[in-house]
Structure formats: structure tokens, C-alpha cells
Amino acid sequence: MGLLRSLLFLFLFLYLGIVRGDDVWNDDDGTPKSPGCSNKFQLVKVKNWVDGEEGISMVGLSARFGSPLPTHEKEAVKLNAVLANPMNGCSNSSLKLSSSILLVKRGDCTFTTKAKVAQAEGAGGLLVMNDKEDLYKMVCTENDTSINVTIPVVMIPKSAGDAFQQSLAAGKKVEMSLYSPKRPVVDFSEIFLWVIAVGTIVCASLWPEFVACEQTDERYNQLTKKETHNSGATVRDDSEKEILDINAKGAVIFIILASAFLMLLYYFMSSWFIWLLIVLFCIGGIEGMHVCLVTLISRMCGGCGEKTINIPLIGEVLLLSVVILPFCAAFAIFWAANQHASYAWIGQDILGVSLMITVLQMARLPNIKVASVLLSCAFIYDIFWVFISPLLFHESVMIAVARGDNSGGESLPMLLRIPRFFDPWGGYDMIGFGDILFPGLLVSFAFRYTLHIHAYTHIHTHTLHLCCLFKNAISTTTLV
Predict the structure, then answer these.
(1) How far apart are CA 198 and CA 446, in angstroms?
(2) What is the mean pLDDT of residues 68-97?
(3) Read out DSSP for 108-137?
(4) Tens of pLDDT, residues 150-196
(5) Which among 256, 273, 287, 390 has most CB atoms closer than 10 A?
(6) Which residues are catalytic?
(7) All residues at 6 or more sequence positions from 456 whose CB lies less than 8 Å from its CB, including other chains
(8) Nearest CA-CA partner of 83 in 173, 179, 191
(9) pLDDT tens digits for 227-268?
């Protein structure tokens, strides 16, 4: 049962082999440039106040033209916001803007025309409200050979525009300030995420040799009925039954099934579907965390892993396992109930790391041929669904699923994430489980092969351990 559950999660993790952050750097050298129309696209923070009360900052995107924005909040000027009349901002109106920020809707004329009209009317800035949630890159047309726009021009998503429009229509006073803070040179959260990914593979690779090998009780099925006679042989047989050696045919079928599941998510993604994945993630996380804790505590306290009790319908089980299982379940339930909290990433990462360590103990590559087939198929899988699928579906299927379109505000849990603590833009650095599991399978195979060679060449144990650690770091860096 534990094996089937872990394989299910290995299947689910495959489509998350793409890392998605909360923002992108938006410069694009492929868009037209001309005098006065050569700015870099930059993300813009739109701070706002409604009747003096500060609201949630919105994120916009600057245009190829217009004046540059300050990089620090203290340098930004607070200005009143005014709705254009007409709303498209394509013609002059009778409004007295007096350095106000003008809000216009997208469409009916070019972006440069809207900017020229706003500037002529004395606006201090222009916000273009998009008709979609995406941030469209505002560029100049081929006829705009010389642009002289001296006010900042920023596009905001539809939801932000609707909120501002409702407040202004209700007669409320809306004030805004625009600035574009720079990112730090070094992203420490990304480094920390790399350390967690490498550490997960290192732990999973060294686990059987230095931790689980000293366990004399069942490693992966502590709640099953224990045999009272010939226990050593039984445990060894049970452990072997828990191991799945992936073959070449299975690797190909695995990728095909993963593609089918990705399409299922693409067409039927909804909040209830995401919650189904969250429940499955919690079940797998509970089992993974339970296995890891029982194994570690049994190693540190030898007597703890020997005490057993009889449970009706189940039989004789480890007492330690019975004590730890409710704690793991409570931990997962608490995370699920508070997954939108600022600290929820900690619980998600703990459950995810525990689950991946357990999966890497159960699924193994038997030889380098199967490893090559599996990783080659995974490479083709990513290339097709990220770069080729837009030709068939008019958008990248992988990115649409990772973005969580139609998910009702819920996010997919099958990834590790860490907040960007020192980034003024906030957000998270993320890595999908597939980016850790696939290199982990290869590294685990290489480690077992090294141990096999060690048995014949008698390499010094400490030297072997150091080589394996470097191998894990290099493999994860190049394959993730």
C-alpha cells in the first residue's frame, strides 16, 4: 500500500518539472526600439491609498517609452488618481488633471496616443488598465519614429484596475505612488533552496547505508503485523518487496501517463481538483514523515524501536510508530488548514522533503540504460509541453498548469518554496519535486554502484562519502 501511494506521488511530481516564481524580468530586446522608445520593461509597485487608508500594493509593468521611475519608495511622489473621460483615453477631455495619475482602459488607440493625450492634459502619470490579468508589454508602433513622452506609463492587471475604478466611481479619494525597486544582486533564498534540494538527494542516497541499514524492524511498513518467528529473514524479504526497480518500458509508459495527467489538469483544473491533490499530498507527506521520524528515533534510541503493542485487527506493531503517526497526521492537517499563512512554506517543505526521501528509497534505477531512457523521456516531455505545446494549444500547457489558471486561488503543493526575504518584490523561489526526484534517482543509482565497486576495490570509507557528497551537489546543480 505504501509503495503504490509513493508511486502515485512520483507520477504527480513529473509535471512539476518547471520552476515558477511570482514574477519575471520583463526586458525584451526583440520589441521595436526608436528614439524615446528604448526603455527597459520593469516591474512597478503601485502603492495606493483610499480615503487615506493604505491598500495592498499592486504590481504593474512599465512601458518601452515614458520617464523612468524612482527605485526607492521615499523618492516616489504621492499623486491623486483620476478616471479618464472617455475611458479609453484616446481623445482630450475637460478634466483638470493638475499632475494627477490618469487611469485609462486599454484599446481603441495606440499606447503612445494615450500617453500623448494624458501628457497634454497635464497628467503626472498614466496607468493603463488591461482587460486581462497578464501584464502586456506596451511598445511603440513603426510609425512612432520619435516619441517625447515625459510622464511614467504603467500597465496594471484587470483586477487592480477594477478595484481602482470602483473606488473612484464611489466618490472615494484614491492616491498613488509609483516606483520600481531593484532586486538584490545575490538571492540568498535561491541558494538556500539549492541547499535543501541537494540535501534531500544526499540524505536519500546515504539513508540506506548510514541510517536505515541499522534498523532491524520493518523500515517502510511499521504499522503492519510483525512476524514473531524468523524475523530477520522476514524483514529482509519485506524490505526487498518494497523496492521498485524501474525498467525502460515502464519509464516510457510513465512519461505517457504523466502527459495524459497534465492534459487532465489543463482542461479540468478547478479548486476542488487542487484540493484533491492537497489531500493526496498530505497522505503521502504523513507516510514519508512517519517513516523518517521512526527510523531516526529508532537509530538514536535503540530500545525505542523494539517495544511493540497489540492493536485489534492489526496485530503487533511498534509502539514508537503508533505514537508518531498521530503527530504526523496533525502536522499535515495543520498545514492544510493554514496553507495560505506566511509560515506555511515551512510545513510544506518538511512534508515534501520527507516524502521525497521515502520515494527515493522505494523507486530505484537498475542500470544506466534505464536512467538514460527515463531522463531522456523527461527531457522530451519538458521541451514538448513548455515550448512546442503553444503551437497546438495557443499557450504553454506546462506554464498554464503551473500558473494555476482556474484553480480558484489555490496553489499546487508539489513543490518546495522559500520566501525571498531580502527582495523588495517578495514572492517565493520554487522548485518542483520532479526537478529533485529525477536527479535523485540517478544519483542514488550512482551511489549504489560506487558502493558495489567499493566492495571490490576497498576504497577508504570516508573518501567514498566525500566523493558521494560532491557527486550529489554537482548532479543536482546540472540537472535541476
Answers:
(1) 15
(2) 82
(3) SS-HHHHHHHHHHTT-SEEEEE-SSSS---
(4) 888 899 988 888 888 888 888 888 888 888 898 888 788 888 998 89
(5) 287
(6) 382, 435
(7) none
(8) 173
(9) 444 433 333 344 444 677 788 888 888 888 888 888 888 888
What are the grid coordinates assigned to 160, written together? 487592480
Q: Where are the alpha helices (DSSP H) in 269-367?
A: 271-300, 319-337, 344-362
Of the candidates 258, 304, 237, 268, the residue with the CA atom closest to the CA atom of residue 414:
258
The answer to whether 275 and 412 have CB atoms below 8 angstroms apart is no
Residues 6+ apart with CB under 8 A from 251: 370, 373, 374, 377
What one-character DSSP code corresponds to residue 421?
Answer: T
CA distance 269 to 453: 48
Residue type, 434: G
Residue given cell 519614429 in the structure block: 145
Q: Which residues pair with 430 in a beta bridge?
A: 417
User: Is the entire prediction scored with pTM above 0.70?
Assistant: yes
Residue 144 amino acid letter: D
Beta strands in 157-305 (DSSP E): 174-179, 244-245
Note the Cα 81 to chain centre separation in Å. 35
- 421 CB neighbour count, 10 Å cutoff: 11
